[in-house]
Amino acid sequence: MNNKISIILYFIISILLFSCSKTKEEKDDIIIFASSSLMNPLIEICTNYKKETGEKIGCSFDSSGRLREQIQSGNYADLYFSSSLYEMNMLKDMNLLYNDSITNIVKNEIVLVIPKDLNININSFYDLTNDYINKIAIGESMTSPIGRYTEETLNNLGIYDIISDKIIFGKDTREVIDLVKNDKIECGIVYITEAMLNNDLKIAAENKSHTEIIYSIAVLKKSLKEKEARDFIDYLCSEESINILKDYGFGIITYPAF
């Protein structure tokens, strides 16, 4: 585990140095804009890819919505790895992607989490309506897919309006987790993959009253390394890479993208 943490820290520092030192014309790395919920497995996969091919990967992690906005604003990337087909389709409709490169990779679920040492009776999403729940952390629906999936779930369950005064918003699933861990908020709704990474939290309930959460990747038409980007997608679909994603809790896609 310590070795994995060291790799991740090294990778993040490398990304920061890389981003500050090169223009897009000078970049010799493949640049991926990826959902922040992919950070841990994707860094591991990219590290393996460099060892096997010598090809360097630079990653920028944020909510898929914010990354999509950056691409629309002209920021450079070779690949976009999104946690939402909605965001991917927006770029597709704007003719910013090679449509034949769009590939569904894995899927995710959302769960209700509480601090591990909190003694509170929460066994379902409906328990959020109880008076003893004062604050609930969720993602922003305008910019983060986790927020949209959460809002959709709560609306489908008929409880969003009932609990709306209790809601505290985070920019993405990692900020929601930080709110629950550090700000004395009783619970939050996050991806199951993120919940599994946090020993300070426990999963109180699961619910699938939302659109299926599909993670897809595509090559951007602005890419200066189209072939290399397509090669990385092939590597991402390999058994080795898929097994890494499975180890982090992602589900497997068994059907094609578009």
UniProtKB/TrEMBL annotation:
Superkingdom, taxonomy of origin: Bacteria
Name the UniProt record assigns to this protein: Molybdenum ABC transporter substrate-binding protein
Classification via SUPFAM superfamilies: Periplasmic binding protein-like II
Pfam families: SBP_bac_11
Upper taxonomic lineage: Bacteria, Pseudomonadati, Spirochaetota, Spirochaetia, Brachyspirales
Family: Belongs to the bacterial solute-binding protein ModA family.
TM ranges: none
Keyword Nucleus recorded: no
Organism annotation: Brachyspira hampsonii 30446
